[in-house]
Amino acid sequence: MTAAIPLFDRAEFLDRLERLRQSMRERSADVMLLDDIEILAYFTGYERSISYYRACLVPLEGEPLMVLRSLDAAPFLETAWFDQHVGYADAEDPVALLATEIARRWGTGVRLGMDFGSHGMTVDVYRRLQAALPGAAFVDMTNVPWELRLLKSPLEIRHIEQASAIADRTMREMTERARPGMSGRDLAAYAACRYIELGALPGHVGPITYGKGWGFLHGHLHDTPMQSGDVLHIELVPRFRGYSARLMRSVVMGRPSDEQRETAERLAALQDAQIAAMVPGASARDIDALLRDGVVRAGLRDTYENITGYTLGYYSQQPVRSSDFTRVFGPHADWTLQAGMVFHMYTSAKGLAFSETVLVESDGPRRLTRLERKLYATE
User: Fold this and answer.
1) Which of 99, 132, 128 minimizes the C-alpha distance to 33?
2) How far is the C-alpha of 135 from the C-alpha of 103, rounded, in Å?
3) CB of 125 closer than 8 Å to CB of 33
4) CA 256 to each of CA 166, 251, 274, 354: distance values in angstroms, whole numbers, following the listed order
5) Where are the alpha helices (DSSP H) in 298-377?
6) Long-range contacts of 185-193 (CB under 8 A, 24+ apart)
7) What is the spatial distance between Cα 208 and Cα 235, in angstroms, rounded to a whole number?
8) pLDDT reported for residue 159
9) pLDDT-based confidence at 247, cuts 50/70/90?
10) Distance between CA atoms of 327 and 151, rounded to whole angstroms?
C-alpha cells in the first residue's frame, strides 16, 4: 500500500536547507541551531526525543553537523540525508560538547541563530551556551523553522493524501462497527490495529470519547460501555511516515433526534461554505468568520471561543505538541492563505463535530479526507 510513494531524497532536503539559509542570511546568522523534534525531522530526516539533548548545527555553507548520543548514531545514519555527526557517552555533557564544536568549527564570535520557542532550547541550555560562548551573538530566529514548513512540496502532499486515505477507511469501518455496549478502549484498539495494517505509524489514534450534551469532545478514553443515546466522538489522527491527516465524525448510539440531524446538516453546510472559500490570497480571519459567525447566527452555539482550523504536516512520534498552531483560523488570524498549505478544519455544536484535512491549491481548496459528511448512527 505504501511502496508507490517514494521517500524524500537528498534534493528535497537540500531545498529545505537552502530556504533556511536564506532566512539566516536575512538575519546575518552564521550557524543555525535546530533542536525541536519536528524541526530536526524536517531538515535532517532524523527524529529523536529530547530525553537527552541533541541538536543539528546548520552553517551557511557546508554540511550540517549533528550532535547526539553515541547510542543514537546508528538510527541517525540510517535516516538522515547527511552523515557528519559527533556523539557523546551518556555520562558526558551534551551542551558542553555542543559549545566546544561550535567554537572549534566557527569561532567564539559566531552569530548563532536560535529558535527560542523550541522545546529543546530550555532556559538552562540557553544560559549554559551563553556562558560557554561569551563572545557569540545569539540571533533570534524564533518560529522561523516552523514557518518554513508551511508550504508543502508535492511529495509531502502525497504523504498527507495517504494519511487521509487511512483516516477515511478507518473511520468508515469504525462507524459501521460501533454499537451500544462497546467501550472507547474497544474502538481505540481497533483503530490502532487498522493504522498499522494500512501503513500508518503506531501510536496515539486520536480522541475517542462519548457522552451526552456538549462538554465531552475533548474527553478521555473510557472503559465503560456506551449506552443508547450516547454520542460517540471520533477524531482520527493517523500519521503516514510522520505526516498527519485528521478527521472527525459523530456516531449516535441508537436513533438520532430531529435536533441532532438538523444540527449536523447545518454544521456540515456551514463548514462546506468555509472550505469552499479557502483560496490563495483569502484572509484567514475572514475564512474563520464564515463558520464562527454562521454557527452563532444559526443558534447552534451561544459563543464560539475556539479556533476553527490549524496547520497540518509532519507530527512527531514522540510529541510535545499534539497540534501545530503555526497558523490558526480565528478572529485574530492576521495572515493570508497560500497554495501548498494544509489544514485541519473543524467545527462542533451541541455535542456533534465534523472535521476535514484540506489542501489549498492554486485553483482552490481540495479535501484530502473524503468520507461522507453526515451524522452516523447505529440505527
Assistant:
1) 99
2) 10
3) no
4) 27, 9, 26, 16
5) none
6) 185/221, 185/222, 185/223, 187/232, 187/234, 188/221, 191/236
7) 6
8) 98
9) very high
10) 11
Bridge-based pairing state of the strands 342-349 and 309-311: antiparallel
Phi, psi at 105, each rounded to 5°: -90, -35
pLDDT class of 215 with cuts at 50, 70, 90: low
Chain mean position to CA 168: 18
Residue 147 CB partners (closer than 8 Å, separation 6+): 326
Give, for 266, the enclosing helix (H) or strand (E).
helix 258-276
Domains and CATH numbers, the chain: 10-148 (3.40.350.10), 154-377 (3.90.230.10)
Q: Choose among 172, 352, 175: nearest CA to 257.
A: 352
Mean pLDDT of the chain: 95
pLDDT at residue 42, rounded to an integer? 98
Q: Determine contact, residues 180/227, Cβ cutoff 8 Å.
A: yes
At residue 214, the pLDDT reads: 54
CB 282 within 8 A of CB 125: no
Rounded to whole angstroms, how far apart are CA atoms 14 and 42?
A: 11
